[in-house]
Design brief:
By secondary structure, the protein is α+β, with helices and mostly antiparallel strands. The protein has 12 helices and 11 strands. The strands form 2 sheets. Strands 9-1-10-3-6-11 form a 6-stranded mixed beta sheet, covered by helices on one side. The chain has a 5-stranded mixed beta sheet with strand order 5-4-7-2-8, with no helix packed on it. Strand 4 and strand 5 form a beta hairpin. Helix 7 packs across helix 8, helix 9 packs across helix 12 and helix 10 packs across helix 11.
Length: about 325
């Protein structure tokens, strides 16, 4: 019997990250920095000391204080010590040389110390979680300390950042990836009771609905199965029509479009990491022929499976 797969675990496992780069910012006010929008870029900020004001896109995201953590995905943003302080590109802050990444801005104001993890998601555009995440999410600290899921890993990363031990770059990269996953878990599992779903979209908004979550889990447990809308409606204890309408309203696509993208998400991992031929991969993810798989893949990702594999392995 196929092993049951938790839907959240399935999509977390599928996130493929490249070039995780942790570093420290030590800033004394007045200071301000800006980072342009970069598709696929993920920035995680952990406030160790002090506080800062964040603007994400055209809007203010509010203040971050000690213990708070935030993730920014694919949009421009600005951090500053106070309202009205001008910003400069982050790249103009010169780091020290050596293994540790350490940026400093000298001033006469209070110290703000941030640990930052910059990551790049791979070129795959089908992960349901990355497609569903808001461009900004925040996990509040507890009495000035990081959330329990983050604290131990964050302490290990800070220790590595302050040392010159051989292999540190590899360790820091792995810890950076772990912190991203822990930040996502903390955000998803500790949302306040009664909080609405307006900040959620796609897969996450569907998982917030008890009925749709059953259908989503069924698809993630066995994406190869030739699901019909009627079958999925039974799983959700709803009529076919009511299920299809609610799924499209909350998730943003029809059930079968979601299933197609989920299959292609699994297929892209097989193309990137394995050596199976296209026919075997097509069969493994639920397509009846290599031709049908190729058409669906190109329609969704803009290139053939073979071309996508070559590009993924050369990047």
């Amino acid at each position: 019997m196929q092993e049951r797969v938790d839907a959240l675990e399935d999509v977390l496992r599928g996130i493929r990250l490249e070039r995780a780069t942790p570093y420290v910012l030590e800033l004394r006010g007045p200071w301000g920095f800006e980072v342009p929008a970069r598709p696929g870029m993920i920035a995680c900020y952990f406030v160790i000391e002090g506080r800062c004001l964040a603007d994400v896109g055209p809007k203010s995201a509010g203040w971050l204080g000690p213990g708070d953590a935030a993730m920014i995905l694919g949009v421009d943003y600005r951090f500053r010590s106070a309202e009205g302080v001008p910003t400069a590109p982050l790249c103009t802050f010169e780091p020290e040389t050596g293994l540790k990444r350490h940026y400093e801005v000298e001033g006469e104001g209070p110290l703000t110390r941030l640990v930052v993890v910059a990551l790049r998601a791979d070129r795959e555009l089908t992960n349901p979680l990355l497609l569903a995440l808001p461009s900004w999410l925040r996990v509040e600290g507890e009495q000035g300390r990081p959330a329990p899921r983050l604290e131990a890993t964050l302490a290990m990363l800070q220790e590595e950042l302050a040392s010159e031990v051989p292999g540190g770059a590899v360790v820091m990269g792995r810890l950076g990836e772990i912190l991203l996953v822990q930040l996502l878990r903390s955000y998803l599992l500790n949302r306040p009771c009664g909080k609405g779903t307006d900040d959620l979209r796609g897969y996450l908004r569907g998982m917030a609905d008890e009925r749709l979550s059953r259908a989503l889990r069924a698809m993630h447990n066995d994406s190869r199965h030739p699901w019909t809308v009627a079958e999925l409606g039974v799983t959700a204890a709803m009529s076919r029509t009511a299920f299809a309408v609610l799924f499209s309203e909350l998730v943003g696509v029809s059930p079968l479009v979601y299933l197609r993208r989920l299959r292609l998400h699994h297929a892209s991992a097989l193309l990137r990491d394995g050596d199976d031929g296209l026919a075997a991969i097509a069969d493994a993810v639920g397509y009846t022929s290599e031709a049908a798989f190729g058409r669906a893949f190109k329609r969704e990702l803009g290139e053939s499976p073979a071309a996508w594999r070559r590009q993924a392995r050369s990047s």
